[in-house]
Predict the structure.
Amino acid sequence: MQPITFSLQFNGQAAPMDEAPGVMKASTTAPAGVMQTRIDADGVGATVEPADGPPAKFESVVTMTGEQTFVESGTITYGDGGTSLTFDTIGEGRLGGRARCPGCPPARCSGGCWRAKANLPAPPATSPPTSWSPIRAR
C-alpha cells in the first residue's frame, strides 16, 4: 500500500453534551483543497487552493476523566465514498502537558496518543476477486 500525505484544516465547534457532564461533542468540516509546498530563499511555505469535491467531516466525543486528563474517540469521513478513519486515545490525554503513552518515548508525546483504523469501502462486485485460499480442518 502506498503512503498518502495530506493536510486538512477542520473548522467547526465543540459543545457540552447536556445529558453527560464533562463530555463534549465536536463536529467540524474541512473543504477539499490542493496543497502546494514552496521552498525558496525565504524558507518553506505552503498554500491551499480550493478544489472540487465533498468536504471531510470530523466528529468526536471528548470525556474529561480528571481535571487535566481526557479520553477521545471519533470518526473522520472523507467524501461520500465510504472511506473513513476511526480513532481513540491510547490511555488518557493530558491538557497543557505531556501524556504518558504506552510504548511511546516521552519526548515524542504532547497532549496524547491516538490509535487509528482505516475503514475503506468494499471493492465493486465487478472487480476480480483477490487471491485467497480457504483452510479446511481435517
Summary: The radius of gyration is 20 Å. Confidence is low (pLDDT under 50) at residues 126-138. Residues 11-119 form one domain. The chain is about 0% helix and 45% strand.
